[in-house]
Amino acid sequence: MPEKKLEEIVLSVIRYFKGRPTRMFIAVFSPIVFLFIINFIDFFLLPTVYDSDEIDSFYVSKSNRGSIRAFHYETKKGYNFSLPNIRIYESEINVEHTILFKSITYVESEGKDYSHTLSSDLNGFMKYFHLLFLFSMIMGIVTFARGKPISHNVLLNIIGFNSLMLLVLIYMLYLY
After folding, report:
1. At a CB cut-off of 8 Å and minimum separation 6, what does 99 contact?
2. Helix boundaries (H) for the chain
3. For the chain, counts of helices (H) and of strands (E)
4. Using the 8-state DSSP alphabet, how is residue 117 labeled?
5. CB neighbours of 110 closer than 8 A, spacing ≥ 6?
6. Residue (of 108, 63, 56, 53) closest to 84 by Cα position
7. Taking the domains of the chain in order of start, what are their residue ranges?
8. Distance (Å, rounded) from C-alpha 116 to C-alpha 94?
9. Residue 52 burial (10 A CB sphere; 0-12, 13-18, 19+)
10. Per-residue pLDDT band at 137 (split at 50, 70, 90)
11. How many angstroms separate the CA atoms of 135 and 87, rounded?
């Protein structure tokens, strides 16, 4: 009996989106835009928390050629951050993190500031990819929500570019 109910729900969703890719785009990408906006508010507008911690473990991310790409650190309090080609030898560190997502914004050990080289979360070049993705998704949602007819080429360009950017960001979050 539950399989029949699930099948009915899936069929009703398919019927709702059939021939309406703009509805599907708005339904799929609107929650993603909302999460990205919350992440930006958390990272740039809300206050951060300063905390002392110890490095519990780290692992090295290497490229295909064997060169070191980044050091990924985990602390005893559960924070994670990455530094490209920089190894922290001290175990005692001071971190500053955001309130909601616990993103690291500042790392310091024995007077050495590593904040300018952080490459995880919205630090470094990840910030620009997030901004580009957020801007393109908002423009796509606004374009579809206006209700004016658009060409099939514009539709495919918006969906294709935003899907590609989403996959690139997921891969970059995996790497860093």
Report:
1. 42, 46, 47, 48, 49
2. 2-17, 21-40, 126-145, 152-175
3. 4, 6
4. G
5. 90, 92
6. 63
7. 20-43+126-175, 48-117
8. 15
9. exposed
10. confident
11. 34
**Residue located via tokens 């905390």:** 51
Q: Give the sign of the dihedral formed by CA 115, CA 120, CA 126, CA 131.
A: negative
> Which pair of structure tokens corresponds to residue 171?
């891969």
CB-CB contact of 117 with 86 (8 Å): yes
Residue labelled with tokens 């602390």: 75
**Torsion sign, CA atoms 97, 103, 105, 106:** positive
Look at the chain and count its residues: 176
Q: pLDDT (tens digit, 9 = 90+) per residue, 95-133? A: 999 999 888 999 999 889 998 888 877 887 788 888 888
